[in-house]
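Hi R.,

Here's the input for the PXG complex you asked about:
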Amino acid sequence: MNTANAANLSNTEKWQGMDGHHFHPFTNPNDLMQKPPRIIESAQGVYLTDSDGNELLDMMAGLWCVNMGYGQKKLIEAASAQISQLPYYNAFFKTSTPPAAELSSLLAEVTPAHMHHAFFTSSGSEANDTVLRLVWRYWDLMGKPEKRVVISRKNAYHGSTIAASSLGGMDEMHAQGGVIPDIVHVDQPNWFAKRCELGTDLDREEFGRQAAQSIADKIEELGVDKVAAFIAEPIQGAGGVIVPPDSYWPEVKKICDHYGILLVADEVICGFGRTGEWFGSNLYDLKPDLMPIAKGLSSGYLPIGGVMVADHIMDVLINKGGEFNHGYTYSGHPVCAAVAIANLRLMISENIVEKVRETTAPYLQKRFRELGEHPLVGEARGVGMFGALELVKDKDNYIKFDSKAGVGTICRDFCLDNNLVMRAVGDAMIISPPLIIEQADIDVYIERAWKCLDLTQKAIA
Ligand code: PXG
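And here is the predicted structure with PXG in place:
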């Protein structure tokens, strides 16, 4: 299809024509042949503008990443200044650059107190590949090379490279890429799903303890001498904003300590203020051994991620290690690092984490719960600047829709048609807005969301 140069086409049509050559991530290419993509052309604050001039309220912060919102001058200027000064140099061969150096020291300040070293990557997926290399390296150096197995959770998302997708717990991804050995998955602490599955009352905290116990059971089954680590998002994001029962994390922490296995807290989504704390690990007092980060580190303006390493792990790598044979061309990329520094400094000067915790998140969560009153919504849950609405067939009896009916997708499409970006994970409608969102925008959100729930209900009646 060569429509790119055709006369009489709108800009939208021209871009859509050219985009016919674009092989999109996580998309059925056949669907795009039937209906070309929406083209997002610009953005400001919490609003996106598409090529037809529609203004969409972005309640997903891009893909869970544009935490400080669009159009932030300080980030733009930092990129521009650094690209002129030094667009690229690497961190290999005993070399560094001022932005990579400054970002590592800034991260040592804002991350939990027992972490003072950052390994840089370009994405969360690369961060989790690095995690796996580090976990295995650590146990080798500790003289326990047989400790190889990493326990993860069903429906976890840790990225799309082979290691990261194997660590993740998404069946559809495993089915297409296989899984590398030595990674096993236990149940996620999804109280709502279990409640619907059982069709009876289910004590939330007891369920949380049982979900944690499944990790201990797995360690016993495999033998503790084989188990290296447990990896989890403090709150599962792409898996459907699964907020664990309060009983879950304290129990998991006890289990990891008891068996002496490493705890990896994947902070790619939870990190940088989304939960109302700097990190989900602060919220749940996790004290992880390794902490992958990305997304909100640069508010998504440029691709950068990393792994924060706890001091006691770093001591082993320094004192017993030698060379760690791992790294990427763009590890510590100076322009990406400069933007991340500007982003973190902006977060600090705007007191954004405190503002989220004290003001924005309580307001968002209060209004979000109002959506729980809608007849289609079985549960409205959330923490900080995270939320999920479970769409159900029968809210009194916790009966879900047939998954094939695609009710979440129907609702998502109504949202887009009504200038609202809300993501569907199955029949859960997800939000993860920019942290800088104001109360007035939250009010706009609630109004649009309620309308789209009504439209969905009518459409499926
Ligand atoms: N860990 C977590 C917890 C994530 O959410 C990654 C790692 C991988 O990061 P990169 O930068 O490699 O994408 C993620 C990414 C979705 C969606 O549809 C979620 C992510 C990425 C793409 C889509 O919810 N999360």
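One thing worth noting: The longest helix spans residues 439-460.

Cheers,
M.
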